[in-house]
């Protein structure tokens, strides 16, 4: 445990989120003064509630995705029971396994792959005090996050970040249990508690030699997924695809798109892919967490540059009368709503 804590404390990739955002606060305050509003960022994406500040409905945001890229998704109301949910799965042809998560969530909050009606019932019974969404499980083998922005009234935009996601995986040796393989893996052992819970039914099994065991399919850094800087893959054809995507989502100008796909050449052509989520101003250019290709201060510089883009887009939308800035009272209210919601989720998780 001491070794794990030492690695997490000395490798900036694992540092808590406030280490990346507190240093940016002075610059954000400067932009607020310059724009004469603490809510300048609220005008960036008029199509998304709060421009995607993390408190928006994921279900509503999914509806913005063009039909051919949209995963089948259903909304689960507060208090809804399993008996009313199962017929919806049939109607929308969502089979097991499936993905379930809070309608309001961030950083992989309570996202889970559900393999059976029993697992679904247990999850619903535990968390139906908050709104949820169920999505079809997308069986493409790869996942990436692509960050894009387009200045309002301009036809072409820019891709600033490509993050390739490598799910946490161990390779069997025919002798060791899955638990032992995890503890012997430098990255996996950092997430041992989480992984052992997700794989509790097979944690003491012995994978055969050379068997690849994927420990989690949730493409979030906090769940163990490795973020790999793929910015060398940015090209004109991919940017054109995102220009087309942006033009079909009126009012979305800035954010990260999380995509599942089989191979990158097909993604560039816009085929054989599904868009899991479209994120707004709270999203990050997650390539910055690839410590092998960057530095902590480089990550801070990238975040600062993206806040500048938020300012430019927000100001442009306000000038074009396409959006307005929210006031300071709204931001205070949002903060306390956020704290209250997190407390509620923690209480549900503890039960």
What would you say this structure looks like, in words?
By secondary structure, the protein is an alpha+beta fold. It has two domains: 2-71 and 138-166 and 226-350, no CATH class; 169-215, no CATH class. Helices cover 36% and strands 17% of the residues. The strands form three sheets. The protein has a five-stranded antiparallel beta sheet. A four-stranded antiparallel beta sheet has the order 1-4-2-3. Strands 7-8 form a two-stranded antiparallel sheet. A hairpin with an 8-residue loop joins strand 5 (142-149) and strand 6 (158-166). Helix 3 runs parallel beside helix 11 (296-319).
Per DSSP E runs of 2 or more residues, the count of β-strands stands at 11
Q: Multimeric state of these chains? A: single chain
> Count of helices?
12
Q: Share of helix among residues?
A: 25-40%
Q: Give the helices and strands as they follow along the chain.
A: HHHHEHEEHEEEEHHEEHEHEHH
Task: Please state the overall shape, judged from the principal axes of the Cα atoms.
Answer: globular
Mean pLDDT: 91
Classify the beta-strand content into a percent band: 15-25%
For the largest beta sheet, what order do the strands appear in spatially? 9-6-5-10-11
How many domain regions? Answer: 2
Radius of gyration: 21 Å
């Amino acid at each position: 445990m001491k070794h794990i804590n030492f690695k997490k404390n000395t490798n900036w990739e694992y540092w808590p989120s406030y280490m990346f955002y507190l240093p940016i606060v002075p610059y954000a305050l400067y932009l607020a003064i310059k724009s004469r509003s603490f809510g300048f960022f609220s005008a960036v994406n008029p199509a998304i509630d709060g421009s995607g500040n993390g408190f928006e409905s994921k279900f509503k945001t999914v509806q913005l995705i063009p039909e051919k890229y949209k995963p089948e998704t259903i909304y689960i109301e507060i208090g809804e029971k399993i008996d009313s949910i199962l017929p919806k799965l049939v109607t929308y042809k969502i089979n097991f396994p499936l993905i379930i998560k809070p309608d309001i969530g961030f950083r992989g909050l309570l996202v889970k792959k559900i393999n059976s009606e029993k697992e679904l019932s247990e999850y619903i019974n535990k968390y139906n005090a908050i709104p949820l969404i169920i999505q079809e499980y997308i069986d493409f083998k790869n996942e990436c996050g692509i960050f894009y922005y387009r200045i309002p009234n301009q036809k072409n935009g820019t891709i600033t970040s490509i993050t390739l996601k490598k799910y946490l995986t161990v390779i069997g040796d025919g002798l060791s249990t899955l638990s032992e393989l995890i503890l012997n893996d430098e990255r996996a052992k950092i997430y041992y508690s989480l992984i052992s819970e997700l794989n509790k039914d097979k944690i003491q099994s012995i994978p055969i030699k050379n068997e690849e065991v994927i420990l989690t399919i949730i493409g979030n850094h906090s769940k163990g997924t490795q973020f790999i800087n793929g910015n060398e893959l940015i090209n004109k054809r991919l940017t054109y695809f995102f220009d087309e995507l942006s033009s079909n989502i009126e009012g979305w100008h800035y954010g990260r798109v999380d995509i599942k796909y089989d191979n990158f050449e097909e993604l560039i052509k816009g085929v054989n892919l599904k868009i899991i989520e479209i994120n707004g101003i709270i999203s990050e250019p997650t390539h910055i967490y690839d410590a092998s290709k960057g530095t902590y201060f480089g990550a801070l510089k990238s975040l600062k540059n993206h806040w500048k883009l938020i300012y430019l887009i927000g100001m442009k939308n306000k000038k074009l009368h396409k959006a307005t800035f929210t006031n300071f009272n709204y931001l205070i209210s949002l903060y306390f709503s956020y704290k209250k919601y997190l407390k509620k989720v923690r209480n549900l998780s503890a039960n």
